[in-house]
Amino acid sequence: MRRALVIAAKDLRLRIRDRSAFIIGFLVPFGLAGIFSLTLADVDEEGDIQVAYTVVDLDGGHLAGGFVDLLGSLDFVELGEASTVAEAERLADGGEVDAAFVLPEGFSDSVGAGRGGEIRVLVDPRSDVGGLVARSLARSFAGDLDAVTLSVATALASGAPPEEAQGLAERAGAVPPAARLDRDAAESRTLSTTGFFAIGMAVFFVFFTVEFGVRSLLDERQDGTLARLLVAPLRPAWIVAGKVLSGFVVGVVSMGALVIATGAFLGAEWGNPVGVILLVLFGVASAVAVTALVATLAKTPQQAGGYTSLVTVVLGLIGGTFFPISQASFLGTVSLVAPQAWMMRGFLRIAGGGEVAEVVPSLLVLSVFVVVTGSAAVVRARSLMGR
């Protein structure tokens, strides 16, 4: 083991002298994460959406009043009132409001009698977001009214007196929904743009950072120094272990520095430190194993560099390091063959407020990558040394 450490230390000194580890392992990913986060800084800022609506309440009933109260309770809605439909149309067409809601006369009575009701939405054609939100709010409220209408219609069909319909409608409208979105919990699980790109760049570039380890075997063979190592009192396993260890150390230091720097200077949230450390260790190990296997398939250092770069870029793209991958899509299914995808899944989950236990599946899959590709890489590396 001491001999393997000596070989690893020698490779680390060579790597540090040419400064490539610092450039590829830290400077480039940190710079790109900063550029992406600055460019897309406005995408996830809270409070960007602010809409202006007006309501024409021609009904005056309790259900119409409930809808008006709902709109007034939304902090992103600036709510006004119009007395006529013509005034509401003028405000919407003139761009003074994003949308106007018209609650017709007899709206509450119609719903209470089990006949349903209609909410008209007049949208400013120039307000895409405001109009979309207005329609969504109207549909959501209409969904609640459907439940009221169904309750009343069912009661009337079963023989309940019509005079009890109004009271039944009020009681049905007061029943809370079966499930509500916990906005506080949802927001706490939302990752910022800065956090996503900090994680993505760290995961993407660590595969470039670690690939020099086993690839240096090809350099040693080309320069003639590998033959000297083989005639020395060294086991081939020690040589391979030293090469692998040097790449692993550089990868861990690189990702660790990025975690600290992006958190301190870019404001990226990485989440539970224990989960982050485990993901870094397992992720770097899988990166070393995969790139080592690819490098051993080449005959020259130049080929090895080309092979590993191609595989790293392709796996990085399908692994979602530059853009989110939907797990329901075809690309989301294909991405599961990339260790980057499992690293991203684990890091995003822990950064979104997840517990350490939630990243265990990612750790297990990364372990499989390490065992399978690492074993194949060791066999290939021994063949490179003629042993």
List the helices and strands and how they pair.
Elements: H1 2-17, H2 20-39, E1 51-57, H3 62-73, E2 77-81, H4 85-93, E3 99-103, H5 107-112, E4 120-123, H6 128-157, H7 165-174, H8 183-188, H9 193-210, H10 212-223, H11 225-231, H12 236-266, H13 273-296, H14 301-318, H15 330-334, H16 339-351, H17 360-384
Parallel strand pairs: 1-2, 1-3
Antiparallel strand pairs: 3-4
Helix pairs in contact: 1-12, 2-9, 2-12, 6-7, 9-12, 9-13, 9-14, 9-16, 10-12, 10-13, 12-13, 13-14, 13-16, 13-17, 16-17
Total helix count? 17
What is the count of β-strands? 4
Structural class based on helices, strands and sheet pairing: mainly alpha
Pattern of helices and strands:
HHEHEHEHEHHHHHHHHHHHH
Largest sheet: 4 strands, mixed
Helicity level, as a percent range? 55-70%
Oligomer: single chain
Q: Which stretches are low in confidence, meaning pLDDT under 50 for 5 or more residues running?
A: 172-189
What global shape is seen? elongated
Arithmetic mean of pLDDT = 81
In what range is the share of β-strand residues?
Answer: 5-15%
Numbering strands along the chain, what is their spatial order in the largest sheet?
2-1-3-4
